Amino acid sequence: MDGAQTGLANTATATVMVTDENDNPPSFRQRLFRVAVLENQAGPLILAIPVDDEDQRGTDNWNAVFSITRGNEGGHFRVETDTHTNEGLLYIVKVLHRLRPLLLVHGFRDRRSGFGVVLVVIDSPGEHNHPPSIICTDPALQRSVTVTPLEYQSLAFKQPFTFTLPPENSGKWSLQESTGSSVVLQLAEPVPAGFYGVPLVVRSGWGVGEVQTVPVRVCECVSRAGHQECVHTLVRPRMEVEVAAIISISTLSLLLTAAVILEKPGEPKPAADVLLHYGYEGGGSPTGPLSDYSDEEEHDPLDFLDTLGPTFKHLADICTGKVERQEDG
């Protein structure tokens, strides 16, 4: 064209698309999540962790990527992203046998966008069977126990610990000598012997914690081999008492049966031994005395007498007719 007026010219339109930049890190809606799961179960979704992201919804920049950074050394959990809600879905993949494992879960996309950290506490309620600690009722013996919480690899449940009794404490218990790693639970006033669950609030440096129950047995103690042992009261087992009662009742029944059968049929009876109708005093009655039941003995099964052992064998033989009854001359 060389700048000539008759040179050819043309125009074009350029469209510049400004896409969303990955400049907003995701943020958790809360620092702490707590979920209760049962032991010996695997597979279920136990928690959906919501996050907020200011990037354009539905884009790759908006989707967070979750990973477990600590507490999953045993491979019990996995976490994945729900692409529709941008939540972190936490699953159990191996059955839990540990007591109160703690997880640190963070979601991130790349180093430029940053990442956030959230704590997830996994509880296994109702599965902890710890033997109770012993507190003695004798003031001269032990009246306190030392409570030491378990410390986990997670930074969320590390020392120092703080210990407090909940407001509903009855005043029967007190805390002494708190060291940051343990505390002494002491009996503040006399209580009856028995088993007690003492509520105790244990919190870590992160403020993570809740009311725990410390099992305590209060009893009379004796000192043996340098430690205190409860004095056990010998109590007859309940089943043994019931069997004894049954045997006693059976014995009374046998004695009554023997007294009835050993009496001679047709023997003259005193008037007091005869059931009388009103208005016919002394005149007899169609209802005979107790001794008349001896005529019905052949209709009453008495085989159970053979099962009562040698103590009642002779009496059983008499009742079943195996031994002839001797009549008085």
UniProtKB/TrEMBL annotation:
InterPro entries: Cadherin, Cadherin-like_dom, Cadherin-like_sf, Cadherin_CS, Cadherin_Y-type_LIR, Catenin-bd_sf, Desmosomal_cadherin. The keyword Cell membrane applies. One of its GO terms (molecular function) is calcium ion binding. One of its GO terms (cellular component) is desmosome. It is found in: Cell junction, Desmosome; Cell membrane. Residues 2-28, 29-134 form the Cadherin domain. SUPFAM superfamilies: Cadherin-like (SSF49313). Pfam families: CADH_Y-type_LIR, Cadherin. Coiled coil: none annotated. Keywords: Calcium, Cell adhesion, Cell junction, Cell membrane, Cleavage on pair of basic residues, Glycoprotein, Membrane, Repeat, Transmembrane, Transmembrane helix. The keyword Thylakoid does not apply. Its main location: other. PANTHER family: CADHERIN-13 (PTHR24027:SF80), CADHERIN-23 (PTHR24027). This is Cadherin domain-containing protein.
